[in-house]
Structure formats: C-alpha cells, structure tokens
Structure of Uracil-DNA glycosylase:
Amino acid sequence: MKVNIDPSWKAHLQPEFEKDYFKQLTQFVRQEYKQHTCYPKGGDIFAAFDHCPFQEVKVVVIGQDPYHGPNQANGLCFSVKDGIPHPPSLVNIFKEIKVDVEKPYPKSGNLERWAQQGVLLLNATLTVRAHQAGSHQKKGWEEFTDAVIKIVSEKQEGVVFLLWGGFAKKKMVLIDKTKHHILTSGHPSPLSANRGLWFGNQHFSKTNTILAQKGRPLISW
C-alpha cells in the first residue's frame, strides 16, 4: 500500500502499511474525508513525520486528537497554523516555556519549528471529523501510532519522551526505560493546569539538560 510519508519513516513503517488494520483504516479515512469535513487536510495527516525525519528524532511529545475546529489542525500535536488563535493547552505550554526557559511568548502557535529540530509531535489519532472530538478514535490510528512509539524506542537511543496527562502516560509501557528518558506531568489543558498539575514541570529546561548531557543540540523552544 502506498502511503505519502517521509521516506525515512516509510523504511521503518512499511510493514504497518501492509497490515489488515491499516488497510481498513485507510478505507475509513478516505470515506470520512469524502463524506464529511475532516481535519487536518489530507496532505497534513502525516506532517509530524514529514517535518521530523526518523534519524533526527530527539524528543517525542504525545497528544491525543487533532484540533477539530476550522483551520486549526496542521498535523502536529498541540500545534495550530500560523495566524490561528492559540487553544488553551497551547497557551499554557507557552506560559510554562516563558517561565522555564525565559523565552518570550510567541505570536505563532505553529510548532513546525520544533519538529524541524527533532521533536516528533505525535497525536495518537491522526484525523478527526470537524466539531466531533474523538470521532476517529478506535479505528486503527492508535495501533499505528503505538507501533511508531515502539519503533522509536527500539531503534533509537536517548530520546526524551514527554508524557503529559493520563492518556499519554499510558504509552509508557511501549518505551524501553533503560535506553530513553521519560518525563511526566499533568496535561497542559486548563482543567489540569489550574489544579497545579502542569505549571512548574520544567520539562523544557529538563529536556535540554538531558540533551546537553548526551552532547546533542538543544531545542530552541
């Protein structure tokens, strides 16, 4: 099966594309995009991989679902297109960065700049129907993205996994803790952040400290 994804990833993920679940998932997604408005646009479904080649992965951030409002989702978790108002979780991410690494709050919520430095911004589900959160869950995407996490864990060394919130923390079982670094905290959503589970986690400075210890380039958050 032909999937339009960065060649560096295709080399590792081709076996997944040949499995029955992925063929069924592909049929489901095609039908959904024909019959409904879905996000992100078709060319951005695999944007997280296209902006962050396999051999460049230094950090993995795991989200759950793409944004389901107009012009928000761009294929990277927590990220929105240039010029789009920042959703609440992204606002809290930027607030923590401002305090943690003393970086000014940015105008753009487009996180392609992170991806291009080696941050894989992976949603567990890569598509969604407009205005219907979770509408493409349990259709096969989770099996695919779990396979992505396992492959990164198996074939890479010293990756920093940022697991924010209960959903992301469940992915810990897929990661080899003897080879990689895992940082956990509450989710940046207001519900969690306002209960004191997000702010002050210092994940951005901690990530750079780990990368520095490995002699790897730091992330400009």
Remarks:
- The chain is about 40% helix and 10% strand.
- The domain at 7-214 is CATH 3.40.470.10 (Uracil-DNA Glycosylase, subunit E).
- The mean pLDDT is 96.
- The CA atoms of residues 76 and 99 lie 23 Å apart.
